[in-house]
Design brief:
This protein has 509 residues and is α/β, with parallel strands linked by helices. Helix content is 32%, strand content 24%. The strands form 3 sheets. A 9-stranded mixed beta sheet has the order 2-1-3-4-9-8-7-5-6, sandwiched between helices. Bound molecules: xanthosine-5'-monophosphate (XMP).
């Protein structure tokens, strides 16, 4: 399989670069800038992309790379910091820009270039830089500029080295997709063999060989990743696979039944559902701190799972739905932890496996979904909005009780039902109800009530790093509010969260 290396210098869009390359049917993998040149040589890449980064190339602590990488005969594309780094490595000049460019900027192509084939002479690009190239290195031609950036693109065609100051990977760059396409197909001469059908065939074949006649066990959370991993393994080894579905009672209304029905009716596998809502509630009694709740829910999920494996007592492989973003080692070092997310787990000492199988570890989320669809998982499951690992546990603020779970499930069900009926789901990246644990005074009939308030959270976003609160039409909100207060016992008030991320996060905890 042909592949492109995205060499990570710590910029915020680095995963996006790899995703955009894969959108053009070429496999891309991300490695940190600390990767030895020997490794890069050994990997036989069709092209290398230097990513952006937060630093200045003259900053001694900023990430650099040996200039030898430019002599491997592999085409290179530098983006933003990567572009300046190429200039610096080859003896050009980088200076602090008199005017920083940020946002949408008009860009002019100034030379016929393979990189800009099919790109108009003038187009809008996305810029975000405070340094600029003031003099290109010897052997490089300027191929594009903006009003404040004399070298917005440059190239050394003899050595197949190209560089752009702007970000072709973001959608705000009008012809960004075309520019990446040109790099892959005009410059790197890729053929485009990264298609999901090939992935499924190759992975099923490889899983069959690896697993042989052995057993495989997979912890199914009901989320997209573990569901797709289960479907893929089922195709490869059928009944040798046992899925252990840990139902911790913190899923949306009727969701556990839906997952069970889907997997038992559509796929060839053994399916074990462990209903352990009571166990989780016990462990969560009196716990109010969000991080502690997350940890307990995450730990108990695996405790239940390991318990089931001990009970089954058969030696086999352990499969997980780990996906590519869980595995990437960023060029930035440790990013600050804002919330603990589920990630890879380590197995307890007394639980033995033949090995760990992670059939989705090369895939981004959108690719996982495409694979899921091709494997026949229903659209409602594959395209469902993200649902946090700790489930409703982080949507009930404060202590979790059985009564609160039921109230929240019922309110959330009404919200989802109304969004679906109005066809509004497709406009939203995520929407749900939150139970803040606040009681307020209300009036129902002639009676004063003192009952729960529920909040609606709905956001639009591409990447969940930032998000905007969704401008749901008032009449839909009115209907939701009416139905919740009428149909859900113990709710007498509904509020709508109108905070973006930042400063808030998507979830309330
Ligand atoms: P935040 O709240 O961090 O959410 O703005 C961003 C996205 O991540 C999801 N999320 C989680 N997912 N475990 C998960 O698997 C978690 O603990 C968790 N917390 C937040 C959230 O639903 C949103 O899609």
């Amino acid at each position: 399989m042909e592949k492109i290396l995205v060499l990570d210098f710590g910029g915020q869009y680095n995963q996006l670069i790899a995703r955009r390359v894969r959108d053009h049917n070429v496999y891309a993998e991300i490695l940190p800038y600390t990767t030895p040149l020997q490794t890069i040589k050994a990997n036989n890449y069709s092209g290398i992309i230097f990513t952006g980064g937060p630093n200045s190339v003259y900053d001694m602590s900023s990430p650099h790379y040996s200039a030898e990488i430019l002599n491997l005969g592999i085409p290179v594309l530098g983006i933003c910091y990567g572009c300046q780094l190429i200039a610096y490595m080859c003896g050009g000049r980088v200076d602090t820009a008199p005017v920083s460019e940020y946002g949408k900027i008009e860009f002019s192509v100034s030379k016929d270039s393979k990189l800009f084939k099919g790109v108009p002479r003038q187009s809008v690009v996305w810029m975000s830089h405070t340094d600029l190239i003031s003099a290109p290195p010897q052997g490089f031609d300027v191929s594009g500029f903006t009003s404040d950036c004399p070298v917005a693109a440059m190239e050394n065609t003899a050595n197949n080295i190209y560089a752009v100051q702007f970000h072709p990977e973001v959608t705000h760059t009008e012809c960004g997709s075309r520019i990446l396409y040109n790099f892959l197909y005009e410059i790197c001469r890729c053929s485009g063999d990264w298609v999901m059908d090939n992935f499924i065939d190759a992975t099923v074949k490889q899983l069959k060989e690896q697993i042989g006649g052995n057993k495989v066990i997979l912890g199914l959370s009901g989320g997209v990743d573990s569901s797709v991993a289960a479907a893929l393994l089922s195709r490869a080894v059928g009944k040798q696979l046992t899925c252990v579905f840990v139902d911790q009672g913190l899923m949306r209304k009727d969701e556990g039944d839906f997952v069970e029905k889907t997997f038992t009716s559509l796929f060839d596998m053994n399916f074990v559902r462990v209903n352990c809502a009571g166990h989780f509630l016990e462990k969560l009694t009196g716990v109010t701190d969000p991080e502690e709740k997350r940890k307990i829910i995450g730990t108990e999920f695996f405790n239940v799972f390991w318990g089931e494996i001990r009970r089954q007592g058969e030696l086999g492989y352990f499969a997980q739905g780990t996906i590519y973003p869980d595995c990437i080692e960023s060029g930035k070092g440790d990013a600050a932890v804002i919330k603990t997310h589920h990630n890879r787990v380590s197995t307890p000492k007394d639980v033995e496996f033949l090995g760990i199988i992670e059939p989705l570890q090369q895939l981004f989320k959108d690719e996982v979904r495409r694979v899921g669809e091709k494997l026949g998982i229903p659209k409602e499951l594959v395209w469902r909005q993200p649902f946090p690992g700790p489930g409703l546990g982080v949507r009930i603020i404060g202590e979790i009780t059985a009564e609160k779970i039921e109230i929240l499930q019922n309110a959330d069900f009404v919200l989802r039902d109304e969004m679906a009926k109005n066809g509004y789901e497709k406009n939203l990246a995520q929407f749900f109800c939150v139970l803040p644990g606040v009681s307020t005074v209300g009036v129902m009939g002639d009676h004063r009530t003192y009952d729960h308030l529920v909040a609606i959270r709905a956001v639009t976003t591409d990447d969940f790093m930032t998000a905007d609160w969704a401008k749901i039409p008032y009449d839909i909100l009115a209907k939701v509010s009416n139905r919740i207060t009428n149909e859900v016992a113990h709710i007498n008030r509904v509020v709508y969260d109108i905070t973006s991320k930042p400063p808030a996060t998507v979830e309330w905890e």
